Amino acid sequence: MLPIIQTEMTTLLENLRLLETLVTAPLGLHSDIKMLRQSLPFTGSNDIDSGALRERRAALSKSIEDVSLVALNTITNISVTLTLLESFKSESGCDLTTIWVERARKILTRSKEKVTVKLRKGSVDKIRGIYVIIDPEVTGGRSILDITESALKGGASVIQYRDKNSDKSCMLQNSIAMQDICNNHDALFIVNDHADITNLSNANGLHVGQSDLSVETSRSIMGDDKIIGKSNNSIEQAISSQSEAADYLAIGPIYTTTTMGKDVKQAVGVEAIREIKSRGIPVLVAIGGINIDNVTTVFDAGADAICVASAVTLADNPEKATRQLLNVFESNQNVK
């Protein structure tokens, strides 16, 4: 066996052992991965004794912060190793059969689907309270990075970067910087419209409108681990977006607004929030004309989060403005 084959087979075995440990009962497929490892035509693919296995799992649990993320990276590593091994001729000493590889790829695909759903759910669960859209045209001439920092200090859980005028290189630079700030505050960073910028900046997700790329197409560009939200201007649109498997939905404008061109859209009112939530939509973000004077009504109607722009980004003190809105949300949650 060629040394490179020996190395890659060892890597494949260890990654399968790791995946087997990570993909346990909550994610399913544990038995399939175990049987795949046991059938690997390579010395050492047998089971580890129970004592050593417990020690290995204990060490892993202390070393890993996000099990799903490590599982996803492990699946990627296994796929790369399989592709490399498949490129060698049989006389090289690679004993993987076509049947074994096909079975492995099917199990990896199913494992990735399970893992990415769990990963996205972890992100979606953070969409609560105050969601701030930051647009360079709606900051009163101030730095978008300063506004981002202020909104997050005020308690915003999500920042969306919306930019209709900058070139892509500038948008990417801004996105990378905003993602870093959001990471420091354990908040989500969402890019509006651009799946490529979402990928390159390692943003948590993408937000699209009714005339943008579909959820399915966007996901094919970005992969399955990033969340996708979609804007809606009616109950019918929201139902359609839900059928596309958008991770969260935005509905609006709730009230008449002139920010970001929404004055041309008809206000849907808070009753739209109640109607959409009654249909079992898990995460709903209300947007449009929402401010400190009417936010209580919006949360009372069932919105999981409110999406604001000028109410924060044009405020004299964006941190204070965000905090005031968050206080209303927290008071509403306490009442419930």
Mean pLDDT: 92
What would the CATH topology of the largest domain be?
A: TIM Barrel
Strand content: 5-15%
Query: Could you give the count of β-strands?
Result: 8
Indicate the topology.
Elements: H1 3-22, H2 30-38, H3 50-63, H4 67-86, H5 98-124, E1 129-134, H6 144-153, E2 158-161, H7 168-184, E3 188-192, H8 195-200, E4 205-208, H9 215-222, E5 227-232, H10 235-243, E6 248-251, H11 270-277, E7 284-287, H12 295-300, E8 305-308, H13 310-313, H14 318-335
Parallel strand pairs: 1-2, 1-8, 2-3, 3-4, 4-5, 5-6, 6-7, 7-8
Tell me what you see in this structure.
This protein is α/β, with parallel strands linked by helices and 336 residues long. It has two domains: 3-121, no CATH class; 126-335, Aldolase class I (TIM Barrel), CATH 3.20.20. Helices cover 52% and strands 11% of the residues. The chain contains 14 helices and eight strands. Strands 1-2-3-4-5-6-7-8 form an eight-stranded parallel barrel, surrounded by seven helices. Helix 4 (67-86) packs antiparallel against helix 5 (98-124), helix 6 packs parallel to helix 7 and helix 6 runs parallel beside helix 14 (318-335). It is elongated and about 70 Å long. The mean pLDDT is 92.
